Every structure is written in C-alpha cells, then in structure tokens.
Amino acid sequence: MPQYKTKSYQEFSRDKQIKKSRKEHTCCSCNKSIPKSSSYTRTVGVSESHYHHGNAFFSNAWHPECLADHRGYISWNLRRQG
Predict the structure, then answer these.
(1) Who contacts 77 (Cβ-Cβ below 8 Å, separation ≥6)?
(2) Backbone φ, ψ for residue 39 (5° rounding)
(3) CA distance 68 to 35
C-alpha cells in the first residue's frame, strides 16, 4: 500500500474520490453542506501534533472545487518559498 509522503518527517496523506455519499457531510474548507448522494473527496492522513504525544490522525471531506483551490494555494506557497 503506497503512502504519499509530504515534506514533514513521518507525515502522510491520501485522497479517495467518493462517487456517491451515503450521508450528509460538511466541507472542511467552506463549511457548507455536501448533500447525500453527491460526490466528494475524502482526505485522510497523519500529521505531527502538539496536542498529543506523537502524531494526529485527520479525515476531511472536500467539495472537488474547494480541494482544487486549496491545492493551488499550497503549490503557489511552495513556489514562493523556493
């Protein structure tokens, strides 16, 4: 099972396209509702945490356009940093 490493030590995340949701979700970017029976993207992973002694698990639901905007923002910041 491949893990998509990020630049941080011992941190990874994965995306999974959900074709049809079974229940209503909330987009983590815009906080709007993702209706039942619509498509969305679920991101899960582990990141470094200051709240726990180790790593924290995260699982987020995204509208496809919100995730595309977020990825554009991240890539723009990475280009700026060099």
Answers:
(1) none
(2) -90, 150
(3) 19
Span 4-81: which CATH code?
3.30.1740
pTM of the model: 0.68
40-54 pLDDT, tens digit per residue, is 999 888 877 776 666
> How is the chain split into domains, by residue range?
4-81
Whether 48 contacts 12, CB under 8 Å: no
d(CA 78, CA 3) in angstroms, rounded, equals 21
* Span 15-31, pLDDT tens digits: 888 888 899 999 999 99
Give the contacts of 4 (CB within 8 A, at least 6 positions apart).
Answer: 12, 13, 14
Under a CB-based contact definition with an 8 Å cutoff, are residues 39 and 17 in contact? yes
Distances (CA, A) of 79 to 9, 12, 14, 72: 20, 20, 22, 11
